[in-house]
Design goal:
- The chain starts with a strand and ends in a 16-residue tail after the last strand.
- It has 2 domains: 94 residues, Translation factors (Elongation Factor Tu (Ef-tu), domain 3); 145 residues, Rossmann fold (3-Layer(aba) Sandwich), CATH 3.40.50.
- Strands 4-3-7-1-2-6-5 form a 7-stranded antiparallel β-sheet. The protein has a 7-stranded mixed β-sheet with strand order 11-10-9-8-12-13-16, with helices on both faces.
- It is built from 5 helices and 16 strands.
Length: 266
């Protein structure tokens, strides 16, 4: 797929809480074909001590309005610099990068997001909805205050919530939702993004039910084009770059199970 380098205009910078925000960006050109699960590398403006671009999932896209959005958690200098950009400023993006979710022909789909792992999943359920598929969606977090943008997800599917303290939805980890213990569990594909233990648990669930599970991985992706080899992971077919041959993988491809080489910088 062809890659582009464009200056996007910041339409809005919406703070969700003290640590999370969403940037809505206007493309200067008609948006290319994007797959849910792909990402963009963003250049940090005006910061001499933040040299490398930062990778972010395409959170959502509106091809009619020619806009994309990025869901970002503030954890370092790069993300902090982005958190204070103003409407009308420009951000340079390399996009669309990586391989996204492979959408099945059937409609028995479960989408599972934990914490800030919701980042690539809104675009996924939006795309499925546009294809006539209303997914079942489980979102989990530590507490009710950590559950973000659930109303947006509810536009595109049937919502189920989990919190570790029981303050919203069912109590427990996202992979402990009661639907997983039901004899009527009839999904054929699970899509997931979140902490590695959550993804590992989804893999076990999918294996137990004999179904497909696709997960979006996070790793250090300094270049986004497979040149720096910072994001290599072991798979059943050898070492592969998360940035070019992922970030979405079928869990059956992951060897041993997935362990990131390093925490993704932000």
């Amino acid at each position: 797929m062809k890659k582009f380098v464009h200056d996007f205009i910041v339409i809005s910078n919406k703070r969700l809480n003290s640590n999370h925000f969403v940037l809505e960006l206007l493309s200067p050109e008609p948006l290319s074909t994007m797959e849910p699960g792909q990402f963009a590398e963003v250049l940090i403006n005006g910061s001499q001590d933040v040299f490398l671009r930062r990778p972010f999932s395409i959170h959502n896209a509106d091809r009619q309005k020619n806009t994309i959005s990025l869901f970002i958690k503030i954890v370092g200098k790069g993300t902090h610099a982005l958190s204070i950009v103003q409407k009308g400023e420009k951000l340079n993006l390399i996009y669309p990068l990586g391989k996204g979710f492979r959408l099945p022909a059937h409609e028995k789909i479960l989408v599972v997001g934990g914490g800030c792992g919701i980042a690539p999943l809104l675009f996924l359920v939006h795309t499925l909805h546009d294809r006539g598929v209303k997914s079942d969606i489980i979102l989990g977090a530590r507490s009710a205050g950590d559950l973000l943008i659930t109303q947006q997800f509810s536009r595109y599917g049937n919502m189920f919530l989990m919190t570790e303290d029981g303050s919203a939805g069912e109590k427990g980890l996202v992979t402990q939702h009661s639907m997983f213990s039901k004899g009527s569990f009839a999904y054929q594909t699970i899509f997931g993004c979140g902490p590695t233990p959550m993804l590992k648990a989804l893999d076990k669930i999918a294996t137990a039910f004999g179904i497909e599970c696709q997960v979006s991985l996070e790793n250090t992706m300094a270049c986004g084009i497979g040149a720096c080899l910072c994001c290599v992971v072991k798979t059943t077919t050898g070492n592969r770059c998360v940035c070019t041959e992922g970030p979405v993988f079928d869990t059956r491809e992951l060897d041993g199970w997935y362990q990131p080489i390093a925490k993704c910088y932000r």
